[in-house]
Design brief:
Elements: H1 7-28, H2 35-56, H3 60-78, H4 84-111, H5 122-143, E1 148-155, E2 158-166, E3 181-184, H6 186-192, E4 202-207, E5 213-228, E6 231-242, H7 244-248, E7 255-257, H8 271-276, E8 288-289
Parallel strand pairs: 2-7, 2-8, 3-6
Antiparallel strand pairs: 1-2, 1-5, 3-7, 4-5, 5-6
Helix pairs in contact: 1-2, 1-4, 1-5, 2-3, 3-4, 4-5
């Protein structure tokens, strides 16, 4: 059988759908990847798929090998996977995203058949974008109920997991920069700053339910590493303030995070994030947990 393949069109198709899939997986993983990593990962996966198709062929073998390699490498790079267990979890999310996107396209084909009748690549890419937005929004709403997570710090070359709560009620912001504020207990604050607080601090005004107004001392934290279900996100530009009263009423959590923190991606090269994974594999090393 003879196939006429346009490499540029095949590359564009793979690039767009890889981007759709990575966006969906990123929502599943609480936005642990930056936009830059998503685009680079999608482009790399598209290049691998096209090369595999041209070298091996467009049949089942070539498509299967190309897709498998593309997915594996995209997941490794985009989500900064450390260890096989994390990689496998991301691959599971990618498989789920693929099924969800494929199912949404079938549903759209039944409900809005005219969309698929648009000329050229638009008839494929537009439904894919619509499906991506619909799935991402549904996942985002369901994720609002998943509030338990951990803040990860390194102490004496040991990775410490601190029990944290992602609380939609935490609307605290530093008044000048409008950066989100995480509320922590005093031992956690000292742990985050390695036992020595910065000289400067910001006044964070607050008003709790049924209580008069007050202020907290907010300290700027360059990077904050958060873990959900074994997947890690690196976030930057966060203020932390001591609030024993808030943590005490939150069921023993040591950190109360704001969902706005998820909007602040960490830098691509960051010593804090890399130090979390230095000194061994997460799958093998023991991780201690601070008790509230």
């Amino acid at each position: 059988m003879y196939f006429e393949v346009y490499a540029d069109m095949l590359l564009l198709l793979n690039l767009c759908f890889n981007t759709y899939l990575l966006i969906i997986v990123n929502v599943m993983l609480h936005h642990t990847a930056s936009v830059k990593r998503i685009l680079i990962g999608a482009a790399g996966g598209a290049a691998i798929s096209v090369v595999s198709a041209l070298v091996i062929g467009m049949g089942m073998l070539g498509s299967g090998i190309g897709f498998g390699l593309a997915v594996a490498i995209m997941c490794l790079y985009t989500f900064r996977v450390r260890g096989f267990s994390q990689w496998w979890k991301v691959l599971e999310k990618m498989a789920a995203a693929t099924l969800l996107l494929g199912g949404s396209l079938l549903m759209l084909r039944r409900l809005l058949p005219f969309v698929f009748q648009m000329s050229g690549m638009i008839g494929v890419l537009v439904p894919g974008a619509v499906g991506c937005m619909f799935i991402s929004e549904r996942i985002r709403r369901s994720r609002e109920k998943e509030k338990d997570c951990y803040v990860i710090v390194v102490k004496d070359k040991e990775r410490v997991r601190i029990r944290a709560l992602m609380d939609t009620g935490n609307l605290l912001r530093e008044p000048i920069s409008q950066k989100p504020v995480a509320v922590v207990d005093e031992p956690t604050l000292m742990l985050l700053f390695e036992g020595k607080l910065p000289e400067g601090y910001r006044i964070i005004p607050y008003q709790s339910v049924g209580k008069r107004k007050g202020v907290l001392k907010g300290y700027y934290l360059k990077q904050l590493v958060v873990e959900w279900d074994g997947i890690f996100g690196n976030y930057s530009g966060v203020y932390v303030a001591t609030g024993e009263e808030f943590c005490g009423k939150a069921g023993g959590y040591q950190v109360i995070l704001s969902p706005d923190i998820l909007e602040r991606k960490g830098e691509e090269k960051d010593d804090v994030f890399e130090n979390v994974f230095a000194g061994g594999n997460w799958g093998e090393s023991m991780v201690s947990e601070e008790k509230g």
